[in-house]
Amino acid sequence: MSFQIGKLISLILQERFGIIIEKVGNFLFEYGSNPLLYIMRGTELPLGKVKEALCILIKYGLVTFKPNNNENIANYSLCIDNILLMTRYPKFLNLLKKKFGDESEMIIEELLQNSYLSTSDIIVKVAERLKCDVNDLPNVRDKFVSLVVAKYIQRLPTPNEEERPVPILEIKESVLFSLPKIDMKLLSQVYLKKIPKEELGETVFWIVNFDRFHQDMRDKYLVDAFTKKFDENVGEFVKLLLQQMYIRTDPWAETSNPVPLLEIKDIVRKKVIYPNLVTFFDQYVTVIEQDPSQIIRKSGEASGGSFQIQLKEAYNQIAWEIVEQVILEKFDSKAVRIFRLVKLKKFVEPDQIQQLAMIPSKEAKKLSYQLLEENFLKLQELKRPLANNGPIKSFTLFYIDLESIVRNLLELCYKTLYNAMTRKSHEKFINKRIIDKKQRVDAIAMGIQSQGATEEQLADIEDMITPPEREILGKIDRKMKKLNIEELEVDATIFLLQMYLKYQ
Amino acid sequence: MVDEHKLIELAKSKPDGISNDDIKSAIPDAKIEDIAAAINKFLKNGSFELYQDNGKLLYKYKDPSKKSTAKGSDSEEKIVFRIIEEAGNKGIWIRDIRFKSNLNMTQLNKVLKSLETKKYIKAVKSVSASKKKVYMLYDLEPDSSVTGGAWYQDQDFESEFVDVLSQQCLRFLTEKGEEAKMHGGGPLLARNKSYATANDVHKFISELGISKVRLSVSDIESILYTVVLDNNAERIASGEGFLYRSTNKFLSSVGLVKTTCGVCPIANRCADTGLINPKICEYLTDWLEEN
Ligand code: SF4
């Protein structure tokens, strides 16, 4: 794992859990999987603290454990991916809210905050937040049930039957999404605080299934991409194709199984929002099928034809475009032209570049060597004798190794995230005095407001913050927002690049 | 107009040369100015040579194919001349002349200089290598592989010219695409209408009149390829040639390129400590101050 990721996760752990957990995390990152005593020694923390830290980390799925060779001792290791995922939580929530509404978002939010919850916990917590009447509980339950059915929530693995010093957590594939009976009568009693929830005797706990969210994100970005390249009708077509794909294909297959066109046509007809897609359905299909991107291909003629979507190829092309964008911004459009020339030709001699890309030879040389220096291009030397026993001529050829570029760009993304987060805490640090003051004033204002203070009194309190201070606070606020948005957007880039790697 | 052919025939028939009077008597109905113009032309292209004989001007016919027997050239010059002549309008590099003529460098340089001053040959800078000169006969038009064709002015690649053309080609394709869409009738129809051939684009560019030199269709084809390379158009094979049409990309700007760090030229040197760090980075500061 890379240096940059190490720095980033250390910062994430510190921001969310404080420095002790950060220390434990750093140790595990650096030295890999280790037993408790080693962690204690390495971090120089008291045993109690290390245990506490590990507990929290395990609870949130950020650390896992496995029995050591000596079955009595556990080895702990860090789940780096899950730590990085924490920056993606806002995106998960947003996605869910758009798709299923506020209640469902709240369910996921509770789960993300608490890591795992029982069925009653989820329903009661969300109902309390919504200030539901007891009669509305079934509503919340239905939302919860549909999230399980749609696989956004799954069961928490539990220790398996065998008694062992280090338990092995397991869950059978078959019950991953199976719902236990929910006794609404008892649940209502719990909600009304008439009986303690322990009386429900629950044994099933739920966690968020990130994988399902990633499928959604993958699909959403694909639909967006097709909408951008063609129009919203094509976007809708792709959306339906993906939707129908799930019925018959493993969600992470490189290529979907064939989806009959008639199926899609039927759904489109029932939807009123895309009249053009209905009218010109066959034309759209031809355009999509004949597009040089070749992401959606016809796979059979039977019963009106069926189509497959090449998910691997789609993310391959998306990765290329990202790389091209980065080159465009770092260098210029000529550099991109050179890059794309090498991409199309696979191997290119330096001399050909100037001619085909129509760039003056000096500039072409300069740019291609800059691209080489930043690892966007690679050089291969070929030696070939001109004639038998003749002098050996060497050719140099440019080529591209996309996967290694993508890995470099991912590093750059992590660095960008790290820098944004560092800057955020630095801005807070240098303005600490003002921020603290604002918090104190707010607290006082809240306090006297609850005691029924007059408008005037409240205004007096507010005035403790001077106009220049107010201005500074506004500025800090804007900066924080900007950096937060940047983090989310960079995470989207990370996701796209990860998708490319996942399909490799 | 003078019958130039008649004039040549006349000169050929008199190897010792013809005078102005000879011409007048042979072609009595020609105007003096026309005759003068014709003679000047022949003198220029080497078909005639001018002599003075007792204060009288004589024109002598000279077979252009035998120009190599130029007077005053010694045998070395003749050899070199022939080698250069053979190379045609692609020219020949000095090293190859040396190799073929077996002359040493000083000798060869002298010969070349002499031939050059006599305007039998000329040196042309080749675009394929900036320091490489090739030699060819004086009155030849260098091949486009030497001059680089329409994109070169005195061996300099006219980058801006190419850029402008590339932009205009894209504009043409984009407008054509938009027009096709406006027409309605469905996406397939619109797509088919949005294709253009290099000929179509050539016509448009010619009518724009932005080019000083005449561009060929294949010149336009090269320009169109840059539009394809820029990922602004696609081309598909169709019959003998290609069809072009403007296209959109899959992505709008991704998050990474919107950040300062994603496109930072000194990101490699940026660390927690040291002068380049995210806490005080000016790029970030400026970006944060922007609205
Ligand atoms: S913080 Fe500044 S110097 Fe560092 S990578 Fe980002 S833009 Fe570049």
TrEMBL record, chain A:
One of its GO terms (biological process) is DNA-templated transcription. It comes from the Eukaryota. It is found in: Nucleus. Residues 192-317 form the RNA polymerase III Rpc82 C -terminal domain. Belongs to the eukaryotic RPC3/POLR3C RNA polymerase subunit family. DNA-dependent RNA polymerase catalyzes the transcription of DNA into RNA using the four ribonucleoside triphosphates as substrates. Specific core component of RNA polymerase III which synthesizes small RNAs, such as 5S rRNA and tRNAs. This is DNA-directed RNA polymerase III subunit RPC3. It comes from Henosepilachna vigintioctopunctata.
UniProtKB/TrEMBL annotation, chain B:
Keywords: DNA-directed RNA polymerase, Nucleus, Transcription. It is found in: Nucleus. InterPro entries: RNA_pol_Rpc34, RNA_pol_Rpc34-like, WH-like_DNA-bd_sf, WH_DNA-bd_sf. Pfam families: RNA_pol_Rpc34. The keyword Transcription applies. One of its GO terms (biological process) is transcription by RNA polymerase III. GO terms for cellular component: cytoplasm; nucleoplasm; RNA polymerase III complex. It comes from the Eukaryota. The keyword Transcription applies. Belongs to the eukaryotic RPC34/RPC39 RNA polymerase subunit family. DNA-dependent RNA polymerase catalyzes the transcription of DNA into RNA using the four ribonucleoside triphosphates as substrates. Specific peripheric component of RNA polymerase III which synthesizes small RNAs, such as 5S rRNA and tRNAs. This is DNA-directed RNA polymerase III subunit RPC6. The lineage of its organism: Eukaryota, Metazoa, Ecdysozoa, Arthropoda, Hexapoda.
